[in-house]
Amino acid sequence: MKITKYIQNIVNVLQANEAHLNDLDAAIGDGDHGSNVARGFKAILEQNGQFTDDSLIEKDLMVCAQQLMSKIGGSSGPLLGSAFMALAITLKGHTTFNNQDIGNGLKAAFDRVSQLGKSTTGEKTMLDALKPAVDAMKNSNGDINFKLAAEVALKGAESTIPMLATKGRASYLGERSIGHMDPGACSIALIFDALSNVDNVQVETTQHTQAQESIQTMHHDIQPITKEVNILIVSHSEPLAKATIAFVSEMKNGDFALEYIAGIDSGAHFGSDPQVIKNKIEQLTIQSELLIIYDLGSSKMNTEMAFSMLTPDVQARVKVASCAFLEGTLIAVTSNSGTSAQELKELVESQAKMEK
User: Fold this and answer.
1) Is the CB of residue 290 less than 8 Å from the CB of residue 317?
2) What is the pLDDT of residues 176-210, one digit of tens each?
3) 262: nearest Cα among 308, 302, 307, 231
4) What's residue 220's pLDDT?
5) pTM for the full model?
6) How far is CA 189 from CA 42, 150, 200, 207, 269, in A?
7) How far, in whole angstroms, is CA 296 from its chain's centroid?
8) Which residue stretches of 139-287 are H helix?
9) What is the rounded distance in angstroms from the CA atom of residue 146 to the CA atom of residue 14?
10) Strand 318-321 vs strand 258-262: parallel, antiparallel, or unpaired?
11) Which residues contact 294 (CB under 8 A, 6 or more apart)?
C-alpha cells in the first residue's frame, strides 16, 4: 500500500495548523509543537522514493518512525516514532487491511506510547485523543475508514481542556494547565482528520516476494572489555552539551572516551535522534562499558528507545545514570578509574543527589 498520499494529507493539515498548534503549546509548553510535528512528517514525505505500490507496509512504517524520531524535537519525536514502530510490527506481513487490522496496530501504538511516556488517558497527553480513535477502529468492520476515528479523536482532544496536566512539560504549571487543549492531543486529532480525507483509499497491496526488511543496523563486532568506562551525555541542546564537555574535560583523568549526542539536524533544533544515539552506543561499547547521562525527559525517552534497539550483548555493557546533568557528568569524569559501569553509575547517582 503506497502511503505517500496519506502522508501528503497529514503534512498539508499540519502545516495549515502549525501556528495554531504552536499557540496551544505556548500556553503550556515551549511553543514549538506545531513546527516540530510538521517538520517530522514533511521529512517522511521527502522519503517518497522509498514508498512503492508493492513495498512492505512494515518497511514503510519503519521509515516513518525513523524520520519522526530524528526530525522532531522534544518528547513528541520518540513518542510518535515509537507509535509508528509498534504499528509496523503489528501489521508485519499484511497485504490487505480493514478497520480492525488498523485498530489492532493503533492499540499496539497506544500501549507503546503509554509505556514509553509512563502515562495513560486522563493526564492531558496525546493518549487522550489516540485512545478513542483506537477503540473506534477496533470496533468497526469493513474497509479502512478513518472518519469515525477522526470525530472521536477530536472529542478526545477537546476533553483535555479542563484537565490538569500530570505528565510532560505542562505538568510543571500545575493548575495553570487547566483550560488549555493539549497540543499533542490536538495534533493526533488533526492527523486522523487528514487520514479521513484521503480520496480513493487503497486497501490491498501486491504480495512482496522479497525477504522482510527492517531498519538497517550497524554491524557491531563486540570485543572483550579492555578499557575504562566510556561516558556519553545525551542532551536536547548541542550548545549545552558542548559547554558541559568543555567544562568537565579539564578534570578528566584517564584514558576513556567522553562524548555527546545532542540536537537534531546538526544542532539546528532541540532534541536528539535515537538512531544516532544507538550508533554512538555501539561505537563506544566495542571494547568498553559505557555510562550514559541525560538532561531532560525527551533525552531520557530517546536513550531508552536507542537502548531497546541494541542487541543483548551491547545492552549488557550499558548503564544509564539518573542524576543532575552537570553534577553527574563532573562526578563521573573525576571518579572514572578502575571501576565498572554499574559501580560508576551508583557512585554518580548517590553523589549527584547530595550535590542537588
Assistant:
1) yes
2) 999 999 999 999 999 999 999 986 444 333 333 23
3) 302
4) 55
5) 0.70
6) 18, 6, 21, 32, 25
7) 13
8) 147-158, 183-196, 238-249, 274-284
9) 17
10) unpaired
11) 233, 234, 235, 300, 303, 320, 325
